[in-house]
Amino acid sequence: MSGKNQSAKRVKTLAENRKARHDFLIEERMEAGISLLGSEVKSIREGKASLRDSFARVRDGEVYLENMHVAPYSHGGAFNHPPRRERKLLLHKGEIRRLQGKVAEKGYTLVPLSLYLNEKGKIKVELGLARGKAKADRRREIMERESRRDLERALKESGRHLSRE
Fold it and tell me: How many CA atoms are closer than 13 Å to the CA of 11, on its beta-carbon side?
């Protein structure tokens, strides 16, 4: 992902982890492939995947996505998959080693940010190397967002009053 424009490669977002952006400070982002079963691919394309409370873990020189929920495929029958099984992420060995070193540092974790289709029709995961935010930081962020909204609202209202006169 070094230097590549991500927005040009992303075709359709299938699932997003909005809570991760709230709970973590994302320091680095990267794209990873994901090993899926056929029924999982069909279910994800229907939009029945959730990244909420999911995380990635480096184990035995490989990265696994855990706690991601993919609802059973509606026409899968007996060949459906377990909804919360761990799924292997596809990364280069060098990337895995670098991530393993970073995650070993205190406070870092691997969080899936979104699940999307790339221009070739493959399902990809955007991973974020993140640090947890303190409760005070989250509160401060919410207060800043609210004050910005209030300021924009006040400017918009004052602009309306000026145009009426």
Answer: 9
Q: 128 - beta bridge partners?
A: 29, 111
Which residues lie below 8 Å from residue 41, measured CB to CB, with a gap of 6+?
Answer: 123
pLDDT digits (tens, 9 = 90+) for 125-148: 999 888 877 777 778 878 888 888
From the list 161, 124, 108, 129, the residue with the least C-alpha distance to 13 is 124
How far the first Cα of the chain sits from its last, in Å, is 54
At residue 44, φ and ψ (nearest 5 deg) are -65, -40
Give the pLDDT confidence score for residue 6 in this predicted structure. Answer: 52
Residue predicted with more confidence, 149 or 82: 149
Q: Which tokens hold the place of 12?
A: 């359709």
For residue 52, count other CB atoms closer than 10 A to its CB. 14
**R_g of the chain, CA atoms, integer Å:** 20
Helix, strand, coil fractions of the chain, as percent rounded to 5: 40, 35, 25
Rounded Cα–Cα distance for residues 43 and 125 (Å): 16
**pTM of the full predicted structure?**
0.71
User: What b/e readout covers 116-153, taking b as 16+ CB neighbours within 10 angstroms?
Assistant: bbeeeeebbbbbbbbeeeeeeeeeeeeeeeeeeeeeee
